[in-house]
Amino acid sequence: MPPITKATELGVVCGIDPGLSGGMAFIDQSGCLVNVIKMPIILKEYDLKEIIKQIKHYEPRMIAIERQQSMHKQGLVSTFTTGKGFGMLQGIAACLAPFMVVNPKDWQKEMLTALQPGDTKKNSMIAAQRLFPTVSFLATDRCKVIHDGMTDACLLAEYTRRKLYAT
Predict the structure, then answer these.
(1) CB neighbours (10 Å) of residue 45?
(2) How confident is the model at residue 99 (pLDDT cuts 50, 70, 90)?
């Protein structure tokens, strides 16, 4: 997708699925997907400079970050990595734009309503493809599997856009 230059005029909302296999999506006020990318990482670490660059480029009016928490039977290293990434993304967001933390169940309840209850990752992929049928949710040209971090980020951004611009 070609980048736009005056994103603030379009009221861009950014949705972030914060995992290392997460994604970032930017949707304008009218609901048009401006850009979606997999989470920028280098050697299994967040590429903070690229994350900041993306956010600064689109100048979102709001950043929505999906809440992260430790899961039952999750290892200590995994729990620490999750919390570290979540905290870093909140810090970046706080410096660049207004932000909010959204519980996964909240956006899923609204964005996955038309689908059968069950596998939320699969349902997220289906819902994102229905909302944005012309968008490829493949992380790279060589990928054959849809990137669920990108689809989650898109749905989170759309959920936030609807809440922010509700009339």
Answers:
(1) 12
(2) very high
